[in-house]
Amino acid sequence: MSDPLLFHPHHYDPADLDETSRRLLRATVDWFETRGKRALVDSYNTHEWYADFLAFAAREGLFATFLTPSADGGDDKDKRWDTARNAALSEILGFYGLGYWYTWQVTVLGLGPVWQSGNAAARAHAADLLDQGHVMAFALSERSHGADIYATDMLLTPDGEGGFRATGGKYYIGNGNVAGLVSVFGRRADVEGPEGYVFFAADSRHPAYRLVRNVVNAQMYVSEFRLEDYPVRERDVLHTGPAAFDAALNTVNIGKFNLCTASIGICEHAMYEAVTHAHGRVLYGRRVTDFPHVRRELTDAYARLVAMKLFSDRAVDYFRSAGPDDRRYLLFNPMTKMKVTTEGEKVIDLLWDVIAAKGFEADTYFDKAAKDIRGLPKLEGTVHVNLALILKFMPNYLFRPQPHPAVPTRRDAADDEFLFRQGPARGLGAIRFHDWRAAYDAHAHLPNVARFREQADGLVALLAAHAPDETQQRDLDFLLTIGQLFALVVYGQLILEQAELTGLDAALRDEIFDLLVRDFSGYATELHGKAATTDEQAAWALAHVRRPVVDADRTARVWQRVVDLAGAYEMRQ
């Protein structure tokens, strides 16, 4: 039986997208399915570069169609930057393996500074490279500085002819071995401060571009490279000064979103495999899925995965409806990065507890999922960095709502061109949100939504009466726990909005909030134990630990959805 909430390769048809998008997404699924599981597993285990996938993508014009904005697409009316279909492709690629997703992801990042640039020649060159089937790279991080863009040792020296000579190294750069265009962040040797920043386009095939090595032990290529007196012509310069800094952050805003859908795809494939294995196995004379603890773990894993999809799908709408006067997506974006990807880790852990040693076997998809799911919370900023970012939105979100036009479901064939004119990467604390309580009020009849709403209202009361003092505001360890409590409120809001739009089964809605009640209680307990927590804050924490409302019939209905996954999908050998 096919679960309509989960991606299923044999029944996949994104009917809400246009015909060309549907054809390309279906062709991608068919390519992987025809290739088969043995090739998928063996190429991963032997660290084989995925040239066959890149050849397929080039032949189909997949990246060119999906990643060229309309303004740069010439007469091809199917080319556009469409977050809805990009998210769909990201989920599919994650379903088959992180490496396939990763080469797509770093191409997205590499194009970010280009499509934000006013350099017409560079834009035309990038569009042409995409048409030829090339992938791109984004060279921000360095071995000594990580992704600290305030400190870069990639130095550009003026050549006296309007260009520069670039010398320096970059580290942890995906696709750096083959990228037709590498967006490189550096600074002028003759200009101090932000005015000296430069983003420029390089070519990995140039003789002054020296590939050092692959820095990871994996199928994907994550390069270290050095430029040695690399000629940067005027037509290669994408951004200078503070605009280069903004381009770096805004590119990450665009690319960060894809991590949530990769995590979802990985979890979906792993869940099919795990449930099928567990349900077909008999231990001590009982089917494994008859054990109560197994049922709980698999039910929790399924509910967490559905919640991940609901939140991420709704966040797409906010991305696509964004504009200068509505930048709410800048909260929901780090939420997809921080919350959805860490939920993905929890899903895999729950499944792994059930299938145990099976999860280590080399001929399974699961052992790849168990390794790769760990990487997503650590890419494009750590969980801690994104939690700290989320905290910037908390005062306005909780205390100062303002009306906004309703955001519809966005699966129309439109170009999301605002993403490439986001403007200066500042002013996050001034962004205003609609009233988060409205989504909760609409579902107040569900027992666990109502119980979680009590906890959310309690967080507002805590911050009003016992807000972090000056010392606590400098204690990131303390603040991150507050951030986790706040993130749950935001997470629940978009889950409920999407559940309403899609008519999600009420039992599953309440089962998801059973989890959120437990999660809130866990973070409240954590807050209680922090050394920096005051007596008043500790008392609040204990007072807001709640048990979810138990309903055996509700849980049984959700369990039936889980057990129906047994044997529902198996990739052909």
Automatic annotation (TrEMBL):
User: Which domain of life does this protein belong to?
Assistant: Bacteria
**UniProt GO MF annotations:** acyl-CoA dehydrogenase activity
| InterPro entries, per the entry | Acyl-CoA_Oxase/DH_mid-dom_sf (IPR046373), AcylCo_DH-like_C (IPR036250), AcylCo_DH/oxidase_C (IPR009075), AcylCoA_DH/oxidase_NM_dom_sf (IPR009100)
- Indicate yes or no for the key word Flavoprotein: yes
The residue ranges of the Acyl-CoA dehydrogenase/oxidase C-terminal domain are 245-392
By its UniProt entry, which Gene3D superfamilies does this protein fall under?
Answer: Butyryl-CoA Dehydrogenase, subunit A, domain 2 (2.40.110.10), Butyryl-CoA Dehydrogenase, subunit A, domain 3 (1.20.140.10)
Q: Name one Pfam family in it.
A: Acyl-CoA_dh_1
Q: Which GO terms describe its cellular component?
A: plasma membrane
Keyword entries, A-Z: FAD, Flavoprotein
The UniProt family comment states: Belongs to the acyl-CoA dehydrogenase family.
Q: What is this protein called?
A: Acyl-CoA dehydrogenase
The species this protein belongs to is: Micromonospora sediminicola
